[in-house]
Amino acid sequence: MQNNFMQTELQMLNEAKRDNGFLMKNYEAIREKYENEFVAIKNEKIIAHGKRIEDVISHLESRGINSAMTTIEFMREKNIIIVI
Predict the structure, then answer these.
(1) Contacts of 31 (CB under 8 A, 6+ apart)
(2) Cα dist. 57→4, 47, 48, 73, 84 in Å?
(3) N- to C-terminal Cα distance for the chain?
(4) Is residue 39 part of a domain?
(5) Residue 1: pLDDT band with limits 50, 70, 90
(6) Which residue of 43, 58, 68, 82 has the lowest C-beta tally within 10 Å?
(7) How far apart are the C-alpha atoms of 22 and 41, rounded to whole Å?
(8) What is the pLDDT of residue 55?
(9) What is the residue range of 59's domain?
């Protein structure tokens, strides 16, 4: 039983790694198309986007997709500087 759990966890980590890699590889193109929006990525595809994260999560949940297991990133506009 524990072995199955570990395999499932490993599969989820590999999926997240793949989706994050897709985001990084295509960051500029995605940012240009979805500037100032949140994008949700699953299986190396953009499956939802919107100005408010609540709307993106709601859309995912309405399709039965667990938002906690989905890569979601805000695509801020180019050349913006954030001072902390």
Answers:
(1) 75, 76, 78
(2) 28, 11, 9, 12, 27
(3) 46
(4) yes
(5) low
(6) 82
(7) 9
(8) 97
(9) 2-75
For residue 77, give both structure tokens. 């506009």
On whether residue 31 sits in a domain, the answer given is yes
User: Looking at the domain assignment, is residue 16 inside a domain?
Assistant: yes
Number of domains comprising the chain: 1
Strand, coil or helix: what is 70?
A: coil
Higher per-residue confidence, 68 vs 2: 68
pTM assigned to the model: 0.82
- For 63-72, b where at least 16 C-beta lie within 10 A, e where not — what string? eebebeebbb
| CA 38 to chain centroid | 8
Q: Give the CA count within 13 Å in the CB-facing half-sphere of 54.
A: 0
- Considering only CA atoms, which of 67, 71, 78, 79 is closest in space to residue 29? 78
pLDDT digits (tens, 9 = 90+) for 13-33: 889 999 999 999 999 999 999
